[in-house]
Amino acid sequence: MKKLAAALLSAMALAAVPVAVAPGAQADVCGDVGGRHVNVGGCTNVAGDVAVASDDDAAAQATSGQAPCYTPQGVPYYTPGSDPCY
Q: How many domains does the chain have?
């Protein structure tokens, strides 16, 4: 009976380990480009680099008929002033 209980406790402990160690998702894009004179590398947070207009500016642009920018997921947004979409 002790061997069965030990086997069950071991199996339950091993089943709980992947749940406890699961990492969070990251939205970084990393790259490395090398050339004859320049070597560039690093990571960037794509979602954090987008400049988004304030609520008042976005409402003014929508009222004037300016077309919004769209994220890759299809969500519309406006950039500050006359900044281009990225």
A: 1
